Hints:
Blueprint: H1 9-14, H2 17-22, H3 25-45, H4 52-60, H5 67-77, H6 80-91, H7 105-141, E1 146-151, E2 154-160, H8 161-184, H9 199-204, H10 209-222, H11 239-268, E3 271-272, H12 292-307, H13 309-316, H14 327-352, E4 356-357, H15 359-373, H16 375-384, H17 389-410, H18 416-421, H19 430-434, H20 446-464
Antiparallel strand pairs: 1-2, 3-4
Helix pairs in contact: 3-7, 3-10, 5-6, 7-8, 7-14, 7-20, 8-11, 8-20, 11-12, 11-13, 11-14, 12-14, 16-17
Amino acid sequence: MNRDSYISPLSTRYASEEMQHVFSDNFKFRTWRRLWISLAKAEKALGLDITDEQIAELEANKDNVNFDVAEERERIVRHDVMSHVYAYGQQCPKAKGIIHLGATSCYVGDNTDVIILREASKIVLKKAAQVLKNLSAFAEQYKALPCLAYTHLQPAQLTTVGKRATLWMYELSQDIENLEYQLSRLLLLGQKGTTGTQASFMELFEGDEEKIKKLEALIAADMGFSGCVPVSGQTYSRKVDAYFLSVLSGFAQSAYKFANDLRILQSFEEMEEPFEKNQIGSSAMPYKRNPMRSERICALARYVIIDSINPGITAGTQWFERTLDDSANKRISVAEAFLAVDAILNIYINVTSGLVVYDKVVTRRVMDKLPFMATEDIMMESVKRGGDRQALHEALRVHSHAAAAKVKLEGGKNDLIDRIAQDDLFPLTKEEIEAHLDPKKYIGRSVSQVDEFLANVIAPILDRYNGEEIKSELKV
């Protein structure tokens, strides 16, 4: 490692080798060569003077990119595509004259970027599905464990630990479906020429428009796409990048929500992210178990959400048929968004594979608040036995605030039940009142909702990604 030069933490600390490969020079320039081969094969099939021997020569050298020759040539001509055309031609002297025939730079540049969008998205999808798989097992295990639910971060009613997990899962499932949608409509640029008119191909094929259309269809099929964009300038619309980074922002938002919730729950001592045997939580306080993985998710998520603005600005500032102020920005913003989301999902997989629930703490915190939450049931039962609803409501308000003050100001025990039992307005015994303190009475349809959600929403997604189990090994 060169320790005198800047190296992105996305490479050294966060993103997987798999995702980094998709954005690597090897993947990029080998894809350029596959596109040149595809173009030559399609042109030959449509009658241009290209031989099997030339194509075989191109095929034989498609993976051994001579980077040193290309880099030296680019220092001279200041053009990356023509430098690689030159380098490929050095390895393929018989095919040298037909490499890049009729094409402009965006034939390899933009079509490769589209292929990269596809391949990077596939990695995101399979990792997000693994998170859903982890959380699905978690939700099933804890679907009936009552816990405090919050509005305004204040205890409101009850939910269950498993039901809360479905909220995290539902947002992530929507991100998956959104990315699948974008992939389903992703098209190659094709070979549109300098300003999108395909004028050079009109020259090559002597004005035969049907052959030009067939050429695009052959290339699209060869590269695994349903087709090419119907119209363009020199480039594919930069709105495509904006669409994909908007979806990646969605993944970041969903992960951010999960990680923030978990950080709060860890502060409440109800749940924890995994904590390794020799892990140090704080340099100053040895007892601490900081939620550093969840914090890292939040940090990376903020970066992605902000980065997702970049392609929209780029798309809006493309002049007429193209300008080049997209290139430098696009190289950074698109790659880093995918690398950061990959890192987020790596951590998300790791955390959800080892979530810890302290069920006794969860239950204790429920029981501390349950007397307040049971007041509506107590009031309605008292009304059934002849009580005055308005008077009962006012009495409960007074008793609740008094009990809360005892807890908050005196550090005492919640004595709300005793106060109600001693109030003659309530025609209930203490035992009858305490019968309302079963947490399971206050979780509504939580258990059924978990079952239905896992079966109807999550199972179909997991069926689509029923591949090898992904275990996230964090770099640091």
